[in-house]
Design a protein that fits this description.
two-stranded parallel sheet; about 55% helix; two-stranded antiparallel ribbon; single chain; 6 strands; 2 domains
């Protein structure tokens, strides 16, 4: 989760560089904000917003006046494998969009009911999500599922406008990614239940290094099935109070998309799409779409235990299933200071022409000052100007080509 004291504002931040605009518009937003406040403060605010907004939003989405029920929804949505794994890998922009989904759902329901100026609420709720392309798509899908067919054209119009900062620059690129990434970034099993039950338990991320140890619990697949069954029963009861089945259907779609690469025939289909269809690279790392399942699961489970006196016991059970998210993942999440040399180099490069080459040419590094943990190279977000990197990635011994096929890619090849 790389933040820098002051991120430079350059063409790449707006998606106008050689690479695909994957960090658009978030790089521009962070660059503008860090002109006013330090990056470390921005990072702390983002982390707080992810945890607080996701839990509060899920709690308020449940139509009940029982605090215990809302606590179950909050814990189920904010304390799960999806949040843990994406947090450990540093995908804070995706989690910011995830945290916005309950609020987007509430705004969509208001649009469905014909509330005055409900569209403004949808715009405001979607803003944290549209800092990234996946987050914007997650928000758009959630809004469509909750606003209903009669409001669909308004929702799509809002979504197209709010997501323009990333899809407009995408038109300037060929938008094609390496199809080798399909298998490399496919969902993986975390226990004997395999990838299917891992994904249905909101886990299954491709990177084994970020998977909490508790996900290997041999009882977890059984508990996952039981909790999902309870959530379905809860959604059935909840459907009498609010239209939840479209949201549940979206959750099923998210699970299917997350599992496409591990289903028979899924890999060649995705490879063909990514190789020939611009923008289809968003289907890589498909496990991220299981975020759509988390919200109906959380509110369904909360309603399922609404009539029980052991509501708080359910919340404790959910916490206990993922103990290694506590205290920053038992030390996995901790702030790390940059060595003074970084600031010294930045000062020397200010107002100097030309690009900066950082050797070895790799977008992912292991520094001694960060305990040799794999991390994104902070140079492009720390040093002024344009930094030359090789954005290819080695996953399990397989090289997935980067998406910067222009000048930077040529420099990396040299």
């Amino acid at each position: 989760m790389v933040f820098t004291p002051e991120q430079p504002l350059n063409a790449a931040a707006f998606g106008l560089g050689d690479a695909l605009p994957r960090a658009v518009p978030v790089d521009a937003v962070v660059a503008l904000v860090t002109q006013v406040v330090s990056g470390q403060l921005v990072q702390k605010l983002v982390l707080f917003a992810i945890v607080f907004a996701s839990g509060l939003g899920a709690a308020l989405l449940v139509p009940t006046d029982k605090t215990g029920v809302r606590v179950v929804a909050a814990v189920a949505y904010s304390w799960n494998a999806y949040v843990a794994e994406r947090l450990f890998i540093g995908h804070w922009t995706l989690l910011l969009g995830y945290a916005a989904l309950p609020w987007v759902a509430k705004a969509g329901l208001k649009m469905r009911d014909g509330a005055p100026r409900a569209w403004t609420g949808l715009v405001l709720a979607s803003l944290p999500a549209v800092v990234s392309a996946p987050g914007g798509i997650l928000a758009l899908g959630t809004a469509l599922a909750t606003a209903g067919r009669r409001k669909a054209w308004q929702v799509v119009a809002i979504g197209v406008v709010l997501n323009a900062p990333w899809w407009v620059p995408s038109l300037l690129h060929n938008g094609l990614s390496d199809p080798a990434g399909v298998e490399a970034f496919s969902a993986r099993g975390e226990n004997w239940g395999g990838p299917v039950l891992s994904v249905l338990g909101l886990g299954g991320i491709w990177n084994a290094e970020v998977v909490p140890a508790s996900r290997a619990n041999p009882m977890l697949p059984v508990i996952t099935v039981l909790l999902l069954g309870a959530a379905v029963l809860g959604l059935r009861a909840l459907s009498k109070r609010m239209p939840v089945w479209p949201l549940a259907g979206l959750g099923v779609l998210g699970a299917v998309l997350a599992l496409v690469a591990v289903l028979p025939g899924g890999v060649p289909v995705l490879e063909a799409l990514i190789e020939h269809v611009p923008g289809a690279g968003l289907l890589r790392d498909s496990q991220k779409w299981v975020a759509w399942l988390a919200l109906p699961f959380a509110i369904g489970l909360a309603v399922a235990v609404e009539r029980l006196r052991a509501r708080l016991l359910m919340a404790v059970l959910l916490l206990g299933l993922l103990p290694d998210l506590a205290w920053g993942g038992f030390g996995r999440l901790e702030p790390v200071d940059y060595p003074p040399d970084w600031a010294a180099v930045r000062e020397k490069l200010v107002d100097r022409p030309g690009d900066v080459a950082v050797f070895p040419l790799s977008a992912f590094r292991r520094f001694e000052w960060n305990d040799r943990r794999t991390q994104l190279d902070p140079a492009p977000r720390y040093l002024p100007g344009t930094t030359v990197v090789d954005d290819s990635l080695s996953v399990g011994g397989r090289i997935v080509a980067g998406e910067d096929r222009g000048r930077r890619g040529c420099a990396a090849a040299i």
